[in-house]
Amino acid sequence: MPPPAPSAAPSADAPPAASERVVDPQAARIGAHIRALRRRRSLTLVQLAAAAGLSHPFLSQLERGHTRASMVSLDRVAAALGTSQAELLAAAVPAARAPGDTRPEVLRADEGARGPFPQGEARLLTRSPAPFEPMEFVGANTDPGEYYVHVEDEFLYVVSGTVLLDLGEHGRHLLAAGDCARYRGGTPHRWSTAGTTTDTPTDSTTDSAAEPGAYRVLVVKQVLARQEAP
Amino acid sequence: MPPPAPSAAPSADAPPAASERVVDPQAARIGAHIRALRRRRSLTLVQLAAAAGLSHPFLSQLERGHTRASMVSLDRVAAALGTSQAELLAAAVPAARAPGDTRPEVLRADEGARGPFPQGEARLLTRSPAPFEPMEFVGANTDPGEYYVHVEDEFLYVVSGTVLLDLGEHGRHLLAAGDCARYRGGTPHRWSTAGTTTDTPTDSTTDSAAEPGAYRVLVVKQVLARQEAP
User: Fold this and answer.
1) Nearest to B109 among A170, A173, A177 (CB)
2) Residue B124 carries which DSSP code?
3) Low complexity: which segments have biased composition (chains A, B) (predicted)?
4) Low-confidence ranges of chain B (pLDDT < 50)
5) Are the beta carbons of B175 and A220 separated by less than 8 Å?
6) 3 state SS of A157
7) Considering the domain A20-90 in this protein, what is its CATH number?
8) pLDDT tens for each residue of A124-143
9) Is A108 on the interface with B (CB under 8 A)?
């Protein structure tokens, strides 16, 4: 028997077939985790949406798992909740490790919590809290999208492909495999493929020039000492 | 006019043609930096060698730039000096950035301080102090060499090739491109190519036993808050 619906929820608000509108189990788990953190911090939907610079209906959809947040939106929600994007993503992995588990962890190329990213995917490369957060981004977006801005320092390394890294007033930098960049907290940053040109590396199996070049970057974000949740 | 030699140095100790025995300018700069740090900490050669688990004559050679330290040895010297391997390597790059320079830094694939590594090379991926230390290791060593052991947490990501990561009592792990591992401070670790040996597990695609496979890994090491040098 399903648990009763919260009596405070006006039934007119409830969509007719809510369970059918859940995007996928991962989105549902991330949404539930955001909602739990928000309630623990005694924030209303409106307050958290305002703090994250998102619309209230969008945040509601997100908490219900009816939509997937972009990585930028997830980053904003995490910052407003005093947590990290990685922690929110990690909530999407049911088999996360216990905090006291200090054994080495090995993550295969097909493992790790994944999040949406324009024309690609982000993958969190740890399963438990770490002194820094490594993530892998695979994409082929020609639109750089919104800027990420956060207080932590960050490091970006190009594994394959060619990336145009846009650092706002600090210029745009064309980075190829083996190139890297480090930028301090507060620096706006976003990136896109630089691969429609003929400089796409040779190991790509796509032969058509119509496709934007895919890239793979490793991003390591600083983790600041943070307050424990009450 | 060159500065006078320290009067405490016995002249019988000086090799007849010291300048000719310097391996390269980088080795000389790293050696000079180690010597300066050692003196600032009022340690004798014998004391530092003992703390680092190295022989006194080897350390003397190292300080004079007459030999290049392995990455493991450099790591030990750094730990005994209360600094980091990356900081010692960074001393080898004359154009290091000023500490107060907070602009983004872009490092090309052919840039960065380099250090020796068995059958390969290590490359430091920052030019200034960072909240974590990213390094790239390119090699083809079939001999895993000595274990690294340090108090900082570390993360390893395989960019290309196949690596056999040996974590001591925590087992050996065959990692392919896109795989990664994270291990806590105190965990012994070393790696070798997994391109040729027959003890490599089954998912290796290499068919020729002739050449050892080259790999490229990105290693990110935690930076602990450290005491300032007096």
Assistant:
1) A177
2) E
3) 8-19, 192-210
4) 1-19, 197-210, 227-230
5) no
6) strand
7) 1.10.260.40
8) 888 777 889 999 999 888 88
9) yes
